[in-house]
């Protein structure tokens, strides 16, 4: 999704309560808001390629997770860290291990970040902003982040190593994603996401 920072007073620090109020306003129907460290942003609607890739990855995850009862697969789950009301993100697709799924399931924003997070880049996205999201997810409990880059037919994978350091690597069309410790045995060949006749072209949202 493309990212626009909303005009705001410089002294204003936003919380999830502010986002809730915005989303409950009928004038904002169809608009997407999120927070990072109290800064408010808006995402426009995803384009065709974006939504198609998100749907495919969600389907592949669900097909693996559901029969094995491994946890919950979600699309556009609004979630915030349990210890912060100033950060709220909405990953395109996510997986949360069964033992971490809240009981009962929250009716509002989820008070935890999923184990695996997928963010699909739209043409008007800033990669720097997506990477900021990746760091935020990992700093607040996620294990693995996949930044899907349609224009490169590649995925940038982010995770935390044994020493607690953030690590990233670019995986091309000939490579594959795997669920690592968060989802052992799960794998996606990138050739499935980006077939040979795919060029990743699309118009901006």
Task: Please give a structural write-up.
The structure is a single chain. The chain is α+β, with helices and mostly antiparallel strands. The protein has one domain (46-193): tt1808, chain A, CATH 3.90.1570.10. The protein contains 4 helices and 11 strands, in the order βαββαβββαβββββα. The chain has helices at 16-24, 48-68, 127-139, 190-193, and strands spanning 4-5, 32-36, 39-43, 71-75, 93-97, 116-120, 144-149, 154-160, 166-171, 176-179, 183-189. Strands 4-5-6-7-8-9 form a 6-stranded mixed beta sheet, sandwiched between helices. Strands 1-3-2 form a 3-stranded antiparallel beta sheet, with helices on one face. The chain has a two-stranded antiparallel ribbon with strand order 10-11. β8 and β9 (166-171) form a beta hairpin. The longest helix is centred in the N-terminal third of the chain and has 21 residues, at 48-68. The chain starts with a strand and ends in a 12-residue tail after the last helix.
Helix and strand topology:
Layout: E1 4-5, H1 16-24, E2 32-36, E3 39-43, H2 48-68, E4 71-75, E5 93-97, E6 116-120, H3 127-139, E7 144-149, E8 154-160, E9 166-171, E10 176-179, E11 183-189, H4 190-193
Parallel strand pairs: 6-7
Antiparallel strand pairs: 1-3, 2-3, 4-5, 5-6, 7-8, 8-9, 10-11
